[in-house]
Amino acid sequence: MSFSGKYQLESQENFEPFMKAIAAFLNCLPDDLIQKGKDLKSISEIEQNGDNFKVTVTTGGKVIVNTFTIGQETELESITGEKIKAVVQREGNKLKVSLKGIESVTEWVDANTIVNTMTVGDIVYKRISKRV
Prior knowledge:
Elements: E1 5-13, H1 15-26, H2 31-37, E2 42-49, E3 52-59, E4 62-69, E5 73-77, E6 83-87, E7 89-91, E8 94-99, E9 102-110, E10 113-120, E11 123-131
Antiparallel strand pairs: 1-2, 1-11, 2-3, 3-4, 5-6, 7-8, 8-9, 9-10, 10-11
Subcellular location: Cytoplasm
Domain Cytosolic fatty-acid binding proteins: 5-22
GO molecular function: fatty acid binding
């Protein structure tokens, strides 16, 4: 299955508690930014060539571009804008990565749906995006 495509955020669960936990954990993200962010719809564009990926996430005016190769250390930009060295692993239809205590799993549930689950402590933030 190729992960390539453009996906728009359709729904999310636990955005505010997750962002507040990250803010406390990383000592960043003021409350006003969290409030603004919860209503923004993001677009994720994924380009896959074998084990090489380029992921571009556009949320409002903010664009994050990460490129990585499965199993190789790379520098990824987190949702807070911090650059973190990490290794992305692939398990079937899932991509998994740990970014400074934040566990992220992106799963392709079917040809048109991806679910990204991020966990910090006991708080789970779930994002469901559909192919556009």
